[in-house]
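Bit of a strange request maybe. I'm writing a small parser for structure token strings and I need a real example to test against, not something I typed by hand. Could someone generate the tokens for this chain?
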Amino acid sequence: MAQYTLFLALLTFACSNPTEVENPPATLLVQAYLTPGEDPQVVVRQTLPPGQFYDGREVPVRGAQVEIITGAQRFALDEAPATPGVYQLPAAQLPIEAGRTYQLQVRHQQDLLQAATTVPDLVRITEISADSLVYFQLFGDLFGDLTHPGEFRWTKPANAAGYVVRIEALQVRTLPVTADPLTGDLDTLIARRQRLQGQASADSLAALDQQIETLRSYFSENISLVRAEGDTMRWLRDREQEDWDKIANKDWTEGKKWRERRQVLTNNRVVDYWIPADTLRGDYWWLGLRFEGEYQVVLHAADQNYFDYFTTAFNGMSGDDGDKGPLFHLDGGLGVFGSYTQDSFRVQVYRGNEGRPKLMVRK
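Reply from user aminoacidic:
Good idea to test on real output. This should exercise your parser:
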């Protein structure tokens, strides 16, 4: 899910220069989604003043008091030692149950953030039209004219505010955006190696070479179209294969090429969209499929907090987010404290060479 930071610039005219901008106070920012069977986890961050925007969009909040309350029970979440700002508790200690209400309290210094969510009832996918799809190149020119290639139906939970569908290519390997600084390190090491050629000792150059190869191996293994079995995954569309090949021929640094590959794979690996609560049918469209291979289609029955945030937070995906901004159901901060139940199925996608679209239907 995307995270957003709200920056408010207050101009004061009574006691300061009208051209000066005062930094707003830091605001707590949380992200948490409760679902049965998974460990509860709350990410707590803090907004930055405008002058520090380029240092990062937010900073992790260390040492907060994070509690989840349900009924007469209070559970204190522990901060993960290796991940500042991430507070969690095993599901064995705090099991999340469908239909139950949970309250969140986050205290940090003088700030108090509160929110509540009621976990929707269990959702179950009841019908799938096909578990295999064939993609043909002619689809590239026929978007808008195609009949949906596959659909699925589900039961209606009594208290779901809406649904979120996530379609994920399972065999595509990539890294999160947090790996981008490592690509910069690679460029730095390569530039240093070039400067020191002929000046440093052979041992020093060998040590640099080892660091460079370690990073290259890491990127090659994790930003790749090569499956774990060793064979290469194909793009479904010829034009996307051509765009991917062009990266290698660009006059970019090696690190930038890896960053571009990572972004392409990340953007194309997952597609998600929302469905209103009065609908009990969904499609898996060709538009959301980029690679040949296995996909997982996940259906979330979302509570009001999750659904409102998803439908208003992402610019371009809703009608009013550009004017009103994300809809938060929180007191004392920003973000989302929501919940969902889920069900899923898998579909195999093949690339065809000619012919019309077809389905291979489940038996």
